[in-house]
Write a structure and sequence with these properties.
The complex is a heterodimer of chains A (253) and B (328).
Chain A: E1 3-14, E2 17-28, E3 32-36, H1 43-51, E4 58-63, E5 66-67, H2 73-79, E6 81-83, H3 96-107, H4 123-133, H5 149-162, E7 167-171, H6 179-196, E8 199-203, H7 207-213, E9 216-221, E10 224-229, H8 231-236, H9 238-245
Parallel strand pairs in A: 3-8, 3-9, 6-7, 7-8
Antiparallel strand pairs in A: 1-2, 1-4, 4-5, 9-10
Helix pairs in contact in A: 3-4, 3-5, 4-5, 5-6
Chain B: H1 3-17, H2 24-50, H3 57-72, H4 79-101, H5 106-126, H6 128-131, E1 145-147, E2 150-152, H7 157-180, H8 182-192, H9 194-197, H10 204-230, H11 240-253, H12 260-278, H13 282-296, H14 300-312
Helix pairs in contact in B: 2-7, 2-10, 2-11, 2-12, 3-4, 3-5, 3-10, 4-10, 7-8, 7-10, 8-10, 11-12, 11-14, 12-13, 12-14
The chains are: A alpha/beta (253), B mainly alpha (328).
């Protein structure tokens, strides 16, 4: 399988805090990677550097061979790297369909069109198909603010998919969800990953989710990669147990 | 046909018939309402649709007014040209100022636009040779309109009213189309969650700048109409008080429905006229009315009507949202 995302020597220090301290990582097409690590391990900073939210002090990020280091976030998304947010981030006053329509319009470079009616735009069908994909066809015309937290998470997934990404970064998709809701959101993500063939990179605290979904687990510790391998290996890795898992796999970090 | 289109056509027909039964003074007043309605609707493209509170829109109104006045007193006095030049220059100034402002949020954006607005006020005040300084520009003509073979005099109050109605109706139509277009949806997304749009591949700053420029264009167009309407213009056109008027008219009518600012402009102008004829303390009364409305009808009069209509038709009573364009 081809390497679609390649990270070389990524480094970001905040004063004396080495948030990300030299990360190398290659993600292959179609792979489902989970990034885990204790609080302060540098997971979120790592995501910020890769998605253009912050510029690294050192290192390069390549998407499908193209150097995207330091690009503005919108250009990185256009190049094929999308993300969702730990704290659900949608457009509350727009309907679910309109939320997903925006990235569909952006994909076609139609967001600057100021004359035609967006309610009649053909991209609406694409947006609707995306909503259907995450099981929200019946909620298309509801304002996002009136939807449940889990539904909003799924709208966000549909929005990210609508950008037609090659790689999708998911920042704790189960954060703040009730157990039943977690299953629905994670189940949908697993279906989507399997059927759309999108390469996914997941940050997650819930070990059940990580070990049930990921093909590969990367453990970050103090801004570096501590371990990298299939879930079974990581589960048995004594160093990982020591610094992070503490012998139990069920606890939330 | 779309119900909102029908509503607008009815309103337009009413606006066309109304002045026939009114005296010159009231026709003059109606013209002012039209011009301020366009000013407020242009302001609301930024405020209600893009989520940017500008406290300096009077500057673009004034740039439009002064450009139009100077053009009409120049060698080619044509009203359509004066409007075009006034609107375009206002848009150009807005493009430059907007470039420096759009990265700021909320109160910082309001303060920076206010500062630039006052800067333009000072330029108009000081640049005596061109703007006439504190005396302003007087004797602005209303040259006749050439329509092919026919020539229409615009000096009579009623004629100018119809000219203003045509211009304002066309401009409002364009603004309305914008709010319903893909661009309008993008602006509303910027309003709802500005930092998010970048992560969908939409560079947020560019869209804010587009909204600022388009708003400046239509504020300038309103100003360009105002100069020949009034005949005399002075620097207080660009004062921050006038920017605040756009804010008040919009809050009065409701920023969350397209027609809100239009309604607000009508209410405010009529209120001012009515109260001013009774007492010299009219700003106190108008101010109190605005405060009461904002406190007790947070969606404005237009927002309240919209909610009533929703309830009446038994639809989900979602809180009024910008872009609920069907309401008038």
């Amino acid at each position: 399988m081809d390497v679609v995302l390649k990270i070389e020597g990524l480094r970001k220090h905040f004063g004396s805090v080495r948030a990300v301290d030299g990360i190398d990582l290659e993600v292959r097409e179609g792979e489902f990677t989970a990034v885990i690590g204790p609080n302060g391990a540098g997971k979120t900073t790592f995501f910020h550097l890769v998605t253009g939210a912050a510029a690294p002090d050192e290192g390069r990020v390549y998407l499908a061979g193209q150097d995207i280091t330091g690009w503005p976030p919108a250009s990185i998304v256009r190049a094929g790297l999308a993300r969702t947010f730990q704290i659900t981030s949608v457009f509350p006053d727009l309907t679910a369909l309109e939320n997903v329509l925006l990235p569909c319009l952006a994909r076609q470079n139609h967001t600057a069109r100021f004359w035609p009616d967006h309610a009649r735009h053909p991209a609406r069908q694409t947006a609707f198909a995306m909503l259907k994909r995450v099981g929200l066809a019946g909620d298309a015309d509801r304002p996002c603010r009136m939807m449940s937290h889990a539904d909003q998470k799924l709208v966000e997934v549909a929005m990210a998919l609508a950008t037609e990404p090659r790689v999708l970064l998911l920042d704790e998709p189960a954060a703040g969800l009730a157990p039943g809701e977690t299953d629905r959101v994670i189940g949908t993500l697993r279906d989507v990953a399997a059927s759309e063939g999108v390469t996914m990179v997941l940050i997650e605290h819930d070990m059940d989710i990580v070990f049930s979904m990921a093909d590969r687990v990367v453990v970050l510790h103090q801004g570096r990669v501590l371990a990298d391998g299939p879930p079974e290996d990581i589960r048995r890795n004594p160093t990982v147990k020591e610094v992070y898992l503490g012998g139990t796999f069920a606890g939330r970090g | 046909m779309d119900r909102s289109v029908v509503a607008w056509l009815v309103l337009l027909a009413a606006a066309a018939v109304l002045p026939l039964g009114l005296g010159e003074f009231h026709v003059h007043l109606l013209t002012e309402i039209l011009i301020l309605a366009l000013f407020a609707a242009a302001f609301n493209l930024l405020f209600g649709y893009t989520g940017l509170l500008s406290f300096g829109q009077a500057a673009y109104f004034a740039v439009g007014a002064y450009t139009s006045a100077l053009w009409l007193k120049g060698p080619w006095p044509s009203l359509p040209l004066a409007l075009a030049v006034g609107a375009l220059l206002a848009a150009a100034v807005a493009l430059v100022v907007g470039y420096l402002c759009v990265r700021r949020d909320e109160i910082y954006f309001a303060m920076v636009t206010l500062a630039f607005g006052q800067l333009i006020f000072v330029v108009i005040w000081r640049w005596r040779e061109v703007t006439g300084g504190s005396d302003g520009i007087g004797g602005i003509p209303r040259p006749p309109l050439h329509l092919g073979l026919a020539e229409v005099a615009l000096a009579p109050t009623l004629h100018f009213y119809y000219f203003a109605l045509a211009v304002v109706a066309a401009a409002l139509y364009v603004l309305w189309r914008i709010t319903r277009s893909p661009l309008g949806l993008t602006l509303q997304a910027v309003r709802d969650n500005a930092r998010r749009v970048d992560y969908l591949g939409v560079p947020m700053g560019r869209y804010r700048l587009a909204a600022f420029t388009v708003s400046g264009l239509f504020c300038g167009l309103a100003g360009a109409l105002f100069a020949p309407y009034q005949g005399t213009i002075t620097p207080d056109l660009s004062d921050w008080m006038r920017s605040a008027e756009a804010v008040m008219m919009t809050l009065l009518g409701g920023p969350q429905v397209f027609g809100g600012p239009v309604l607000g402009a009508a209410l405010m102008t009529l209120l001012k006229d009515f109260v001013a004829s009774e007492t010299e303390y009219w700003p106190l009364l108008v101010g109190t009315a605005v405060v009461l409305l904002v406190l007790f009808l947070p969606g404005g009069v237009g927002g309240a009507l919209w909610a009533m209509k929703k309830q009446g038709t038994g639809q989900e009573t979602a809180p009024a949202r910008a872009g609920a364009e069907e309401a008038v």
